Amino acid sequence: MILDDRRCALGEGPLWHPLRKQLFWFDILGKRLLTRNSDGPQEWHFAEMVSAAGWISHDELLIASETQLFRFDLETGAHLHLASIEGDDPLTRSNDGRADPQGGFWIGTMAKDPDGHPRAGSIWRYHLGEVRRLYSGLSITNAICFTPDGRTAQFADTATGKVMRVALDSEGWPRGEPSVFLDLSAEGLNPDGAVIAANGMMFMAQWGASRVAAYAPDGRYLHAVEFDAPHTSCPAFGDQTLYCTTALQGMDAPARAAHPHAGMTFAAPGVATGQKEHQVIA
């Protein structure tokens, strides 16, 4: 079903706020944060691209933009700078991100033109005021998510078709080198945003495939939830409802006309029980 019919050029970063019982998401290219509540649709516009968020409190989000992480007050619209993220590099922007079980926040970056500037992306972690680059040399960072026990992180480089996993220490920092969890390159599938349900199943949006695919903890494909838009970009769980953002990016005028729901945000009730979104300690 369609949750919201506003068409996003590049829908991304859905976040179910567990205190507000409300979904927030981004249109990266539109430089806006969107939501809807009992009063209807609402959105905020920014001076630069924004892509992902974690919740700090009932009224505050941590938001990742193309140059920084900042606190954002949903009631007043106030901004407070927390940390720069590649703020001196005009070629890159933020992309996929998610809060981790230890109160940190992982955010991936990528080139605004990944074809012209491949492998320009990195994955960073913000934790208790510290920002650290975890991985570099990535083209399109995606699929940042965490297992329910908090011991493993997963992430992808869409350009390679591979989803990686890495063990975490007690403070949430990676220990050891990442290994391949899924290699979808032979299937021609493009791993995009992902989230792990409470039962350990990973639900991954696959760009260009009109679906979110579910994988078991051992990497076995289980099933897929289909959506009426080609470019599914990122899922999120709100209790037992699976939400998914989509995008118009990469579609010409005939394709957009053929897929009138492309770019909208969708909801699929009763799919699985999600983990509660983790709170960012900031």
Explain what you see:
The protein has one helix at about 255-260, and strands at about 1-5, 10-15, 20-25, 30-35, 40-45, 50-55, 60-65, 70-75, 80-85, 90-100, 105-110, 120-125, 130-140, 140-145, 150-155, 160-170, 175-185, 190-195, 200-205, 210-215, 220-225, 230-240, 240-245, 265-270. The chain is an all-beta fold. The strands form six sheets. It has a four-stranded antiparallel sheet with strand order 1-24-23-22, with no helix packed on it. Strands 2-3-4-5 form a four-stranded antiparallel sheet, with no helix packed on it. Strand 8 and strand 9 form a beta hairpin. The chain is globular and about 45 Å long.
List the helices and strands and how they pair.
Blueprint: E1 2-4, E2 11-17, E3 22-27, E4 32-37, E5 40-45, E6 50-55, E7 60-65, E8 68-73, E9 79-84, E10 92-99, E11 105-111, E12 121-127, E13 130-138, E14 141-146, E15 152-157, E16 162-168, E17 174-183, E18 191-196, E19 202-206, E20 211-215, E21 221-226, E22 231-238, E23 241-247, H1 253-258, E24 265-268
Antiparallel strand pairs: 1-24, 2-3, 3-4, 4-5, 6-7, 7-8, 8-9, 10-11, 11-12, 12-13, 14-15, 15-16, 16-17, 18-19, 19-20, 20-21, 22-23, 23-24
Helix percent reads: under 10%
Quote the distance from N terminus to C terminus. Answer: 35 Å
Strand order of the largest sheet: 1-24-23-22
How large a portion of the residues is in β-strands, by DSSP E? over 45%
The stretches of 5 or more residues where confidence is low (pLDDT under 50) are none
Order of helices and strands: EEEEEEEEEEEEEEEEEEEEEEEHE
Number of helices: 1
Largest sheet: 4 strands, antiparallel
Overall pLDDT: 97
Q: What general form does the structure show? A: globular
Rg of Cα set:
17 Å
- What is the SS-derived class? mainly beta
Number of strands: 24
